[in-house]
Design goal:
By secondary structure, the protein is an alpha/beta fold. The protein has 17 helices and 13 strands. It is globular, with a radius of gyration of 22 Å.
Length: about 400
């Protein structure tokens, strides 16, 4: 831990993986604890010691914001063999709680990503013993076919996971299971037993920002004032549909300028390096962590946001940010992204990722969106206006109180 803190009843936050948006959920949970005056202690793996969030916590050196590093009890080579992933993660969370509770009093555990071990709970029980805990699920998709969300049709798997889910939320110690899927609490209300923990909705937040003057934003970014820009934002991997998008743009007459902003994985970096010259006009590629100020300028400057993701059935903070900045999205029809985009009329929906579909969607976006304010559906304000960081913290604190 970063300091010799006095004994206190801590909120324990456990997240072994700080890639993608997961570190943000830890940061926001810690901020919520600070807002409410709850001392908290964050546990992650030693490999994350150089990540920006642990460095930030260590530099602040606050007695009420602690960090500890706990590794799994077996080498990674052994973790990869034998036992399913749910069991392995259950064992890690149990180990983290056991080690920390030897020296610190833990009043509550918060798991920002409970999907690690959710389906192991019916067999192994809570990894936190008698300590109450709150979890957030982001990838529970077994119910999507029942509520009209497009997802893979896997009747046997979905039925099995539905049964496991109903048993999981009856786990002793689980106070509340929160979800970023607004349809899951409704499903749980119809199917869960009275002895189950509450299943509540927490709107997937994005940092509270408001649009800048697009002319000034473009000046700061060195962008042409009269060109068209399509933004791909976040952790840039093949699942973003970036390969298909680049291919479509190379074949599209009068294509917009592509902006790719966010840390790329090795495969995407290799792909972009070999295909960037085929894009006309030349793209703006920012392969790095994006600061808040730069993020604000990017969303202010662009004309539309790409959400043609592959195999992603959960929510997207990028969609929320596009809504907040008044930018249309080009979205896959799958999962919650498609459900929100269609329900809230956020932009063209892609039936597939063919060049023709993408090209047509880009052309439509650049000529017909965003719609005039008087045609905006009420569902947009009803659903997406709740996706603020303040609302996220308030929902979490209501469950922690």
């Amino acid at each position: 831990m970063t300091t010799d803190a006095p004994q206190a009843d801590y909120v324990l936050i456990v997240e072994p993986n700080l890639t993608g948006h997961r570190w943000r959920y830890v940061e926001w949970t810690m901020q919520a604890c600070a807002d409410a005056g709850y001392p908290c202690l964050f546990v992650t793996e030693c490999a994350n010691e150089d990540h920006r969030l642990p460095r930030q916590i260590a530099a602040a050196n606050r007695p009420d914001q602690q960090i500890a590093f706990v590794d799994p009890d077996e080498p990674s080579s052994r973790r990869l063999a034998g036992n399913d992933q749910y069991t392995r993660f259950h064992r890690y969370f149990k180990r983290a709680h056991t080690i920390i509770s030897r020296t610190q009093s833990i009043r509550l555990v918060v798991v920002p990503y409970a999907d690690y071990f959710l389906y192991a709970l019916p067999f192994l029980g809570s990894p936190f013993g008698a300590t109450p805990w709150i979890g957030i699920t982001m990838r529970s998709t077994f119910h999507h076919h029942e509520v009209g969300i497009k997802a893979p049709d896997r009747p046997f798997v979905n039925a099995l996971k539905a049964q496991l889910f109903k048993r999981a939320i009856r786990t002793a110690g689980l106070r509340t299971l929160l979800t970023i899927d607004p349809t899951l609490p409704e499903w749980a209300a119809r199917h869960a037993s009275k002895r189950s923990a509450a299943v509540g909705y927490v709107a997937d937040p994005f940092p509270d920002e408001h649009a800048e003057n697009p002319v000034l934003a473009r000046q700061r970014l060195g962008l042409a004032p009269d060109a068209r820009y399509l933004l791909v934002y976040g952790a840039i991997t093949e699942r973003k549909g970036i390969y298909e998008l680049v291919d479509a743009l190379t074949r599209l007459e009068h294509a917009p300028t592509l902006i790719v902003a966010g840390e790329q994985d090795a495969g995407t970096r290799h792909f972009m390096r070999h295909h960037v010259r085929s894009l006309k006009p030349a793209p703006l590629v920012l392969d790095a962590f994006i600061s808040t100020d730069l993020e604000r300028d990017l969303f202010s400057a662009c004309d539309a946001v790409w959400l043609g993701y592959k195999g992603h059935y959960g929510m997207s903070g990028v969609l929320v940010q596009a809504y907040r900045f008044g930018k249309p999205v080009i979205a896959t029809e799958d999962g919650l992204i498609g459900w929100f985009s269609r329900r809230c009329e956020l932009g063209p929906i892609l039936g597939d990722l063919s060049c023709a579909s993408i090209g047509n969607a880009i052309t439509e976006t650049m000529t017909s969106w965003p719609h005039a304010p008087d045609t905006v559906p009420a569902a947009r304000e009803e659903l997406l206006s709740r996706h603020t960081l303040g609302q996220f913290k308030q929902t979490l604190l209501q469950q922690m109180a």
